[in-house]
Amino acid sequence: MEDEDEGFPGGPYELSLLPNFGKHVAYKLWSDKVLQVERKMTGVSHGKKLKLSALSLPLPVDDNRWFWDPVDTSGLRPLLLTGYESISHGLVCALAERWHEETSSFHLPVGEMTVTLDDVACLLDIPIVGRLIEEDDLDHCVGVELLENQLLFTVEDAMEQVSYNSGAYVTYTALKERYEQLLNRCNQLVGEDLSEEEEEEQRRVRPACVKAFLLLLLGYTLFAGKNSKTINLLWLLAIQNLDELGEWSWGGMGLAFLYEQLSLTSSSHVGSCGGYMSLLVGWVLAHFRHIVPRRKYEDYERENPYVGRWRPPRGYSDAGHFRGLMDSMEHCHVIWRPYEHRRDVTPFQDVCWYSGWIMAGKQKMVRHLPERVLRQYGYVQTVPRPPTTIVPLAPAEVATAFFEFVVHVLSQQDRGDPVPEDEWWKHSDGYIKWFYRVSHPLIVNPAPVPEYIAPRPVYQEVIVEQEWVKHPPDPLQVINNMRVRVEHAMEIPEVASNPLFFNILEGLLSDYIVFDKEPVPRRRSRSPRVQEQE
After folding, report:
1. Which terminal Cβ of the chain has fewer Cβ within 10 Å, N or C?
2. Would you say residue 5 has pLDDT above 60?
3. Which stretches make up the Aminotransferase-like plant mobile domain (predicted)?
C-alpha cells in the first residue's frame, strides 16, 4: 500500500474523500494483471422467475379484486413488468468496481454518477415517497411467528425453515410452494354456497396468499440478496398489515438495499452482488449509449416502466471489455437526463432532492446525495460538500427525516445553476481537476511509463483531453446530440402514431447509427489557460 500522504498510482492523490481506498478492489486492479483477467462476479437475478406463466409465477385473473386491490395499493404491481431474463455479469462486475460507499456513487472518467430516486421512479414506476423500515434483522422466534401467523405455515414447517436457514429467512422454493397452495385453496373457496367454516377459512387464506405473493415479488426484485436461495422475513413486517401497504417507500428502501449491496462488492474476494440487477442494468441502458447495445423492445407500451424499453443483449460476460469502455468514456457518451421526454408519464418528484440517509432496515443505512450528481438533475456540477458532513443518525431519526423529506431537500442555493440546453455535461471550472485528485476514475493502468520519463499526473492528462468540450463543439458530438433528440421525438405518441413523420425520423436515426463506429476524437487544447494547469 502506498504512503497515504502520497496517495495511490492512478489516484486518489489525496485521501480526503476516499480514506479507505487502499482496501478497495480498484486499488488492486490498477496493477494486478492477473486479477484483471480472473476476477469474476455474478449479479443475483431472478428475472426468469417473473415470467407470467403457469410454469413460473401463476397469478389470479384480474376479476379477483381481493388479490389485486391490495397489490395495486402497494404500488408494486409494475415490478411484474421489469425483470430482465438475462443480465451481463461482466457489466455488473465492472460497474461495481467503480462504486464507493463513502459517496454512494460510481466514479467514472466524466465524474460521479449514481442511481437516484428519480431513476427508480422512472425505471420501475414504484412509490419513492413514504416510510422506511427501521427494524433490525429478526430473531428465530419472530421468524417462526411471522411464518405461522402471516403465511399460515404449520409450526413444524416454520421452525424447519428458520432452523435450516440459520435465521429469520425462508427459501424461495418453500415460499413459492406456499403461495401456490394458498392460491389454489383461494380458487376453491369461491361461490355463494360456502359454509360458515369455509367463509372463515376464506377470510384467513386470502390475505395470506396476497402476503406470500408480495414477499415473493420483493425477493425476486428489490431485495434480492447475495444468497439467491432465501428471502429475509424482515420485509414481511412491512406487508403484514394490508391496509398500510400504500404507506411505504418501496423505491427508497430498494435503492438503499442496492447501495448497500454494491458497497459489499468493494472487496476483491466478493463473488456476487445482490440488489435488483434489472434496475442496475436498466440504469446503464438509460444513461449510456456505448457500453451495452440497446436493443429496443418492440412490444413496449409507453405507460409501462421505462426499464422495459430495452432488452439487454445476451453474452458480454467479460468484465475487462466493460472496464475498457468505461475507462474511455467521454461526455458525449452520457445521456444525463434520459426521462425528460416522458415526464407526462412519470413526473419529477421533490423527494428526489432529499439529501441524507436512507435505509432498508437498521443494518442497511446509506447516504443519498444528489449534490454529487447534479448533472443528472439538470444542474451544473460543482465540487460537493464532503460526505462526512452528513451526520450519522439513529434508525428512527432516519425514518423520520425521510418521511419529512421537505425539510431535508437540497436548497436552491446548493443546487446552483441549471445546465445550458446544449451542455448537459457542464461542470464548474475546478470540478474535474478536484475529482481526479481525490478519486480513481480509471480502473486499468493505460500503459507502463518508461522510468526515464517523468509521468504527468493522470488527472492533469485527462483535464487536457476533456477541456476541448469548452471550445466550439466537435461535429461528432453535435451528431450525437441530434441523435438523442430524434430518439426522444420518436417516442412521442403523436409522432409514433404518424407513419410519415415516424419513417422520416427512423431514416435519420439509421444514418446517425453509422457514427457509432467512429471514434470520438481526443483533441488537446493548447490555450494558455490549459497550459497553466499542466
Report:
1. N
2. no
3. 88-386
Mean pLDDT over the full length of the chain: 86
d(CA 162, CA 169): 6
Confidence of residue 239 (pLDDT cuts 50, 70, 90): very high
Q: Do 373 and 477 belong together in one domain?
A: no
| Angstrom distance (rounded) from CA 21 to CA 7 | 9
Residues 411 and 475 in one domain: no
| Gap between the Cα atoms of 237 and 174, Å rounded | 19
CB atoms within 10 A of CB 400: 16
pLDDT digit string, tens, across residues 82-132: 988 888 888 999 999 999 999 999 999 999 999 999 999 999 999 999 999
Q: How many domains does the chain have?
A: 2
Residue 357 three-state SS: strand
What pLDDT is recorded for position 51?
Answer: 58
Say which residues have a Cβ less than 8 Å from residue 118's Cβ, sequence separation at least 6. Answer: 339, 348, 349, 352, 376, 377
Q: What's the CA gap between 245 and 70, in Å, rounded?
A: 7
321 domain residue, yes or no:
yes
Same domain for 86 and 203? yes
Strands (DSSP E) along 144-248, which ranges? 169-171, 230-232
Interhelix angle 65-74/196-220, rounded to 10 degrees, is 40
Domain residues for 144?
A: 21-415
Structural domain contains residue 529: yes
Per DSSP, which regions of 99-241 are E strands? 99-100, 105-108, 111-113, 169-171, 230-232
> pLDDT for 282-315, tens place per residue?
999 999 988 888 788 888 999 999 999 998 877 6
Q: 388 and 525, same structural domain?
A: no
Q: Evaluate if residue 154 carries a pLDDT over 90.
A: yes
Q: Does any domain span residue 433? A: no
Between CA 126 and CA 131 the distance in angstroms is: 13
Q: Are residues 483 and 395 in the same domain?
A: no
Burial of 240 (0-12, 13-18, 19+ CB in 10 A): middle
- Please tell me whether residues 401 and 523 are part of one structural domain: no
Q: Please say whether the beta carbons of 4 and 13 come within 8 A.
A: no
Task: Estimate to the nearest angstrom the gap between the alpha carbon of 25 and the chain centroid.
Answer: 20
Distance CA 410, CA 532 (A): 34
Q: What is the pTM of this model?
A: 0.83
